[in-house]
Amino acid sequence: MRSHRVAVAAGVLLLAAGLAAQQAAPQKPVFTSAVDVVSVDVTVVDKNGRPVDDLGRDDFTLTVDGQVRKIASVQFVPVRPESSSGPAPLPSTSLPDFSTNTVQSGRLIGVVIDRGSIAPVRARDVLAAAARFVARLDPRDKVALFTIPTGPAIDFTTNHEAIETALKQIDGQGDFQHGTKNIGITEALAFEQNNSFQMDQIWNRECGDIPSDIGSSEVMICRKLVKEEANIVATYAHERARNTMNGLRAILDRLGSSETPKTLVLVAESLVVDNERRILTGFGRAAAAAHVTLYSLKPEASETSAAEARMAASPMRDRSLREEGLEYVSEVGGGEMFRVIADPDFAFARVASELSGYYLLSFEPEAGDRDGKAHGISVKVHRDGVSVRSRQEFGVGLTRTAKNEKQAITDLLRTAVPATGLPLMVTTYVFQDPGSLKVRVLVAMDVDRPYDPKDTFAVGMVLVDGKGAAGASVFQPAMSPSPQSPPGLQRYFATLLTDPGTYTLRVAVSDPAGLSGSVERDVRAYVRRLGPFRVSDLMIGDEARGAGASGIVPTVTAQTSADVLHGYLELFAETPAEFDRTAVAIDVAPSPDAPALQTFPARLQAPDADTHSRAVGAAIPIASLAAGTYVARAVITVNGQKVGTMTRAFQVVR
Q1: What strands, in cross-sheet order, belong to the sheet with 337-340?
Q2: Are 459 and 571 within one domain?
Q3: Which residues, 6+ apart, have CB-to-CB distance to 270 below 8 Å?
Q4: Residue 138: helix, strand or coil by DSSP?
Q5: Number of domain units in the chain
Q6: Is residue 291 part of a domain?
Q7: By three-state DSSP, how is residue 338 classified?
Q8: What is the pLDDT of residues 407-465, one digit of tens each?
Q9: Which residues constitute the domain of residue 506?
Q10: Rounded alpha-carbon distances, angstroms, from residue 637 to 539, 582, 645
Q11: Is the same domain home to 334 and 226?
């Protein structure tokens, strides 16, 4: 009987491998929850930037397109509770090993450096302060680094040191060299607008009046140079502004349309949008779709800086023009613009303070909101001395926008930000590929919704290496769930064939109703060397359910209420004779190093085509175990001497 179960377990892997062999503009924020409630995150801070945490439902007024709406609930969410001020706890090896998009343990904070708008050298102080800002974040926060227009880009990671190192190695790329004339951005735009009054004033200042009694060729040449320089200044400002907005839009697109809140901290010296405000069109909607709150930090140039050839003729107006665009993207992004005048650490500390807590408001959309179009949303607080930050647009729709399934899955897989419309649980098991030096990563996934044999999902998976390169991948446009799905869940299996290495696995699903979910998981795609063997992961699972079913189904969350736990692993040896003196037992213990509560011998079975491997399996009665967390432990011995163990945690639920 046990040998039959081992063979079926191997068949599960082959079935998953077969699945792998078969594969060959920003969206509006769309809410398609079954409850159909729109959630709005709102930050309320006092004059010092500290979150105000004692507001109730009656303290808020929420309007949609100017019409007051009833607020269903108000909850203050402290993002960094006092208990999290220390280092993040290390994961216990006694807990079941799976990843999910239903738990967000830290914030998502992206640092955006607009290198094209920051002068070299002057950027060093503010970028060093940005590195210190990252160093002070909670270890559980995921941080990303984006640079505009060129430079390093690092997706969201808890490896804060990598972000800090990159920030210390980059510099500004802005070119602020003046020509032979002293033309500021205000004056350059006056020439662009053909403002004759201002043009005459500038010409007279730079070249003097045209004499009436002598030739005017020198003055005319001077005027021509002034106009040419004004054109250069204006053209350069517009080019930088377009680069900035294109870069920001690309970042929002990269983040996707996940409902997970994200914060972008943009460091830029200027964003000149006068005469070219069209580049701002739709930015607020794109920020809302990506669920992004955006703060801008604007380093101020010293009036005595050596980078300035002469004092600008209109310094106040020039400053206003440079920060107008930054104020706009911060306002529609639900954040604020802060000037960095002398102490850049102060500005970053202000942002950190504002990020330490927010309110989650919810309301039920009305029939007119469900047209898939953008609607204005405003939140006000009935309290003096506070500032309110929230997004300005939202949309409600029942179906996905016009995107094919493959593009929708690709967009989800491009970003480390989880989509949470469909709750997912994912785990992995690593096995040696019998025919090569590659490994097979078995991916087991549960989607949190009842099983329906007529349901299909678009499913995509990709392994990404440490350099960001995509390795093995799977895409199924219409994947049916396994008939062995647990109650209330839909289960899927797939196998990725890859070279040994360390990867990030990204998994995404999308259903016909437009709901989507994604999750990422770190994967060490290696088989361990124990004595004379290469050993796969220890796979655990339940017995297959259903009429006439036989074999086992690999577990995802490692939670079981069954009376029998099934264990399975594979051994590979250079010399088949090694198996003749090898024994494997699978026991159950409270923790990896604790004495066994019960032990059961496993049977080694040789596959038909490969004499260098053995499939190892055992059925372990666990009906007597109380509810709680345990470890299944495969103990491998050669000639009676232990050469190693493989473990997998599981949880008994009654």
Answers
A1: 154-157, 142-148, 108-114, 262-267, 292-299, 337-340
A2: no
A3: 117, 185, 237, 240, 241, 298, 321, 322, 323, 325, 326
A4: coil
A5: 3
A6: yes
A7: strand
A8: 878 878 877 778 888 889 999 999 999 878 899 999 999 988 776 777 778 899 999 98
A9: 1-27+403-526
A10: 19, 6, 9
A11: yes
